[in-house]
Amino acid sequence: MASAKYIGGGTGTLSLDDAVFGERFHGPIVHEAVRAELAARRRGTASTQTRGEVSMTGAKAWRQKGTGRARVGALSTPNRVGGGVAFGPKPRSYTVKINRKARRRALRSALSVHAERGSIAAVDPAKFDTPSTRSAAAALAKLDGEGRVLVVLTDGEENCLKSFRNLADVTVLHADQVGVADVIGAGRLVVSEAALARVTEKAVAK
Length: 206
Known about the structure:
By secondary structure, the protein is α/β, with parallel strands linked by helices.
């Protein structure tokens, strides 16, 4: 069974469930899950006005004949300054459906990548009686590997959260908010015991 070493004053190791951290990597499923998650985060509020929606006079720019210039119609056409936008964005949903089993399998695959390359570590929130960014930075300095760090915590671990959240290249998320894109996009993963239990539950839930 794989395990994660404690950083920041913790002792021993945190056991990792083979049912979650022993999953074979499935690239297409992970890609599908990441694509669905990132698409769901898009607000989809971009909006432009068509030629029928712009506030513009309906009169012709100048009379049809007698000016020596080419005839012209409405000023609201897309090819004129201030006119409407042709085929511009409108509010829409970017949601992409993905099956729950596939999403859980993708999460297990992403977690297993960290377990395989040894880029996962444990943190004991009890060691942070008060918020201390200095202590958090010292703990991460002992973390193997390189790249952005994802710290996963859960309820009741606010002091630990405040300690890590202001560090550069460190993202702190609640266990319920962690997705496949967050896990696979991080170079290193730091998790508390309670958060690990919650993430494991999400990955194997029926």
